[in-house]
Amino acid sequence: MEIIEILRKHAKKYPLMQPCDAVKLIYQNEFGGGHLIKDPEKSLEMLRREFSEVEKEPGAELYEYIGNGISRVNLSAIDESAYPLEALNRDFVSSAENRKGSLDSFLNKLSAVLSEFEKIGFGFEKAAFEAYICEYKAAGCPMVSHSEIYRKAYKPAYRVVEKKP
């Protein structure tokens, strides 16, 4: 299953990933950004604000493929002359409108990750992931944020768009 290979790469690249970070990636793989964007102009305003606060990393990977035709666009890698924020916002809004996903498929991916857990190489124990999944399902499988550990270590700043590498 593609999600297993994607998570294997992420676990290696982001060794401090926590259970919620893995679930966030699986969620985005299935549902895209998961955002319902009511006002594209407000979305662009938020993107501009976030972009202005991000430490730029010339040469950093612009697209990080997360499977299922979805990529995270790394804000720290954006060259506005090549990919204007207006274009990124259009891609983000369009992707959010187009991507539906299904709960059954999402739950199947969670189950596959549990089945293949040892092959992925996470830096956390399977019991921690199982406990998180149990609580997560009881909460209704909402969209989640990155863990504090992940945010401090990797400073994620991206937009999720439909794009294959």
Q: In total, how many domains does the architecture comprise?
A: 1
Mean pLDDT figure: 94
Shape: globular
Proportion in β-strands: 5-15%
**What profile does the largest beta sheet have?**
3 strands, antiparallel
Low-confidence stretches: none
What does this structure look like?
The chain is mainly alpha-helical and 165 residues long. The protein has one domain. The chain is 55% helix and 9% strand. The chain has 8 helices and 3 strands; from the N terminus they run H-H-H-E-E-H-H-H-H-H-E. The protein has a 3-stranded antiparallel beta sheet. A hairpin with a 2-residue loop joins strand 1 and strand 2. The radius of gyration is 16 Å and the shape is globular. It starts with a helix and ends with a strand.
Secondary-structure blueprint:
Layout: H1 2-13, H2 19-31, H3 40-53, E1 63-67, E2 70-74, H4 85-98, H5 103-115, H6 117-120, H7 126-138, H8 148-154, E3 158-162
Antiparallel strand pairs: 1-2, 2-3
Helix pairs in contact: 2-5, 3-4
